[in-house]
Write a structure and sequence with these properties.
- The protein is of the alpha/beta class and about 475 residues long.
- Helix 3 packs across helix 5.
- About 45% of the residues are buried.
- Pathway: Photosynthesis; C4 acid pathway.
């Protein structure tokens, strides 16, 4: 019988090239062990609610009423829901004919895009145009949409920070482009080296690659650093000189665990720099309700905002968005609530503020607990998690462990992470899934396990690690 179109050998080669380590070999092994009855701590993915974080009350109240609008007609609705949640639900239901069960505009509900534009203006101090904001099913879909628009073929390249979030490597492979790495400097708290950046783009061009865009992830994933204003100015100037689109992945902008390096958006820095650069550099910025302290990963709500993108290009991006008809409507409402949460004086403000503060303060404590725990271990060095929700410790593997990994036909950090999983149930992601310098090994873990469990988790990690090092030294 002849081979069929969906037989493996006949599949799109770009699909086969895609690798996504966050749900790769380690995750599959962890899932198998869980089925066998072993307790698994899934720290491989930033998924706060799956690790016990409680959802914020007010957004869920509003969504509940939008999902079941008949409750609004019940005379007793005010006994179950606060007045401001009822008012918000009525507001959002009025914005989309047919409510949550109907398609919206392909860019998202205009009224919600206006709320996001107002949020951006309050954050940056510059007006934002709702017509240049597209709502998407999570930030990932928006990033994929822009990369698909940019990549024309294998000779088109995108500068991506290494270590990088594998969404970028996988998507660039899927669309047949070329990833051009620029390395972050671990000894400088994962700072950017402008000399290395210029070397990366120069080498790519020597290899016949047309570099068309540069990605920044701020705060960093998996590295957790917050870019300084000076760093952002350097990046913007570089992109301007090299005629690159800047893609600002800013999905963790609300998750900051120190006061020295606050989050500053790439858009604010760009507009602060003034003409001609503020009028010419093309920028696309991304945000979401999945990450940040809201942690609404399952809701899949995101947006991107475009700066200095020509109207004809915006029309083409809209055309691609319209193929899917519309982003999911409940997630759009979550985005509206993210942009326009309860204000002082509102009935729900105190509870919302208390819940938000509690989550962020706990995450800050967990960031310290995890960093200190890793740095107490033999042959482990870890920079502090300034923002986002991950630790990325360097594991200094002895030659014996590297030899054992070769015999097992595993990458050394994969070998280490598998042994960690088998011994402790802690499911992490090897650093090789994010990219790292030759001969240097890491793992990525979230800081999301419950605060009360963190001491025992770090003690379990330390016991495994120190015994592992003794065995292979």
């Amino acid at each position: 019988m002849s081979s069929k179109p969906l037989d493996y050998e006949n599949l799109n080669e770009n699909v086969k090239k895609c690798q996504y380590a966050v749900r790769g070999e380690l995750y599959l092994r962890a899932s198998q062990l869980q089925k066998e009855g072993k307790k698994i701590i899934f720290t491989n993915v930033g998924n706060p609610h799956a690790l016990g974080q409680k959802p914020l009350t007010f957004p869920r109240q509003v969504i509940a009423l939008c999902q079941a609008p008949f409750f609004l007609d019940d005379p007793n609705v005010g006994l179950l829901f606060p007045a401001d949640a009822i008012a918000k639900a009525k507001h959002y239901l009025s914005l989309n004919s047919g409510g949550l069960g109907a398609y919206s505009d392909s860019r998202g509900i205009p009224g919600i895009r206006k709320e996001i534009a107002d949020f951006i203006e309050r954050r940056d101090g510059y007006p934002s145009d709702p017509e240049l904001i597209f709502l998407t099913d999570g930030a990932s879909k928006g990033i994929m949409q822009i990369l698909q628009t940019l990549i024309r073929g294998p000779n088109d390249g995108v500068l991506v920070p290494v270590p990088q979030y594998p969404l970028y490597s996988a998507t660039i492979s899927l669309y047949g482009g070329s990833l051009v790495p620029y390395y972050l400097e671990e000894t400088a708290d994962w700072g950017l080296d402008s000399i290395d950046l210029r070397e990366s783009i120069g080498q790519a061009r020597k290899n016949g690659i047309t570099v068309r865009a540069m990605v920044i992830i701020n705060p960093g994933n998996p590295t957790g650093q917050c870019l300084s204003e000076q760093n952002l100015r350097q990046i913007i100037q570089f992109c301007y000189e090299e005629n690159l689109v800047l893609l600002g992945d800013e999905v963790y902008q609300q998750n900051i665990y120190q006061d020295e390096h606050p989050f500053i958006s790439a858009r604010k820095v760009l507009l602060d720099m003034g003409p001609p650069i503020s009028k010419e550099l093309q920028l696309v910025s991304f945000h979401t309700v999945s990450k940040g302290y809201w942690g609404e990963c399952g809701q899949r709500g995101g947006y991107f905002e475009m700066t200095n993108i020509p109207p004809k290009s915006v029309e083409e991006i809209y055309k691609v968005a319209s193929i899917s008809l519309s982003p999911n409507v409940p997630a759009q409402i979550f985005l509206g609530l993210l942009a326009n949460p309860p204000k002082p004086g509102d009935v729900s403000y105190e509870q919302f503020a208390r819940e938000s503060k509690g989550i962020l303060e706990s995450l800050r404590r967990r960031a310290h607990m995890m960093t200190d725990g890793f740095n107490s271990c033999k042959n482990v060095v870890c920079n502090f998690t300034e923002g986002a929700m991950y630790s990325f410790p360097q594991i200094q593997l002895p030659p014996g462990a590297i030899d054992a990994a070769k015999k097992a036909e595993k990458a050394p950090d994969v070998f280490y992470c598998l042994k960690l999983l088998e011994a402790t149930g802690i499911s992490t992601v090897p650093g090789s899934g994010f990219g790292q310098k030759e001969g240097v090994f890491h793992l990525r873990t979230t800081i999301l396990p419950p605060e009360e469990d963190m001491p025992s988790i770090m003690a379990s990690f330390k016991k495994f690690n120190d015994e592992f090092m003794e065995l292979y030294e």
